[in-house]
Structures are given as C-alpha cells and as structure tokens.
Amino acid sequence: MNKECLCKIRELYMALDSFDKEFTKRFGLDLTQALALCHLQEEPDKGAGEIAAALGLKASHTSKLIAKMEAKGLIKRKLCKEDLRCMKFSLTPSGADLLSTIISSDITLPSLLQSNSSAGTY
Question: What is the tens place of the pLDDT at every residue in 58-71?
Fold first, then answer.
C-alpha cells in the first residue's frame, strides 16, 4: 500500500465522519442507528444477532444500539413465539416515521462519497 492510498482512505474516513456528525445533528440518530431502522423495515422481527450480522456489528455494540433505539422509542421488542428466551425487534410507528423523514429528505453526500454516476442526493 502506498502513501496515496493511505491518504485517500483518511480522506474517505474524515468525509464519512463529518457526514455522520451532520446526520446525527439533523435527525437525532447516527448512521448505524439509521441503518438498523432500514434493516428492520425491510426485515421486521429480527433478533439482536441477526441485526448484528446484517450491520457487521459485534454483539456488545448491538446491545448498546438496541438500548439507545428503544430509549428513543424507535424500536420495540417482543418475545419469540418459538423460544421465549429470545427477543425479536421491529420498528415502532415513530421509528417508521423517522425513517420516512430521512428517506424523503434532501441529504447530500460529500462529493468524496458520491459515485461518479450519482447526483449524491438520496
């Protein structure tokens, strides 16, 4: 790996970190929480392990993520019908509303994070 590659990675990391901070300020949750909302909208009633695998998180980070999102009223838990020892998580109406707000907003990615073929607004 050369210096140019390392510098590009640093620039990408800084752009993503800056975007995450602005996103958090605007919507009151970080990108990982937003990704969890997206996942639970697409695949409701998922366990913590399934959420962790989908987002590439460690179990301890997932527990903290779930606790924060529950405290904000964005997700709810329920017992599994098959196994009363496990919990499944899904969006609350507030979580679904916030995700809709995020999706319909005019978020513009920093130019460094945009692909060449996209306009950068999602």
Answer: 999 999 999 999 99
CA nearest neighbour of 37 among 72, 61, 13: 72
Q: Is 40 contained in some domain? A: yes
Q: What stretches of the chain adopt beta strand conformation (E)?
A: 75-79, 87-91
CATH code for the domain in which residue 41 is found? 1.10.10.10
| Domain assignment present for 94 | yes
pTM of the model: 0.83
C-alpha dist (Å) from residue 117 to 13, 56, 113, 120: 21, 27, 12, 9
Is residue 70 assigned to a domain?
yes
